Amino acid sequence: QVELAESGGGLVQPGGSLRVSCVASGTFDRIDDMAWYRGEERKLIARITSGGSADYADFVKDRFTITRDNARNTMYLQMNMLKPEDTADYFCNAHFVVKTTTGWDFHDSWGQGTRITVSS
Question: Is 68 helix (H, G, I), strand (E, B) or coil?
């Protein structure tokens, strides 16, 4: 069982910056890909491999940066040049692996979300 907890959301003015975090806790042997999504439709914003390779949706490219600290089981999303249309609930997602007596179990977990509002 893995729990993901997002933090760092809030109100920011257009053009401003914000960083959100996602901390994984629980029982697992490793975390593979992690990602940030937003909105009710869970639109993919960015994802990052355990090795640090990242890719982004076109609508956030050059404004948002995804990083992770594997030692702390934490993922970050640095958001710059925020726009009103970035207003949404932001969710983190992680694919994690648990070793069993017969092999490996692969799981997927979601956080509860953190609200970001971009408004003057």
Answer: strand
Under a CB-based contact definition with an 8 Å cutoff, are residues 31 and 96 in contact?
A: yes
11-48 pLDDT tens trace: 999 999 999 999 999 999 999 999 999 999 999 999 99
Check whether 106 has a pLDDT greater than 80. Answer: yes
Strand partners, 43: 38
Q: Is residue 50 within 8 Å of residue 32, measured between CB atoms?
A: yes
Check if the beta carbon of residue 66 is closer than 8 Å to that of residue 49. Answer: no
Which stretch of DSSP H or E encloses residue 112?
none
Rounded CA separation 91/44 (Å): 9
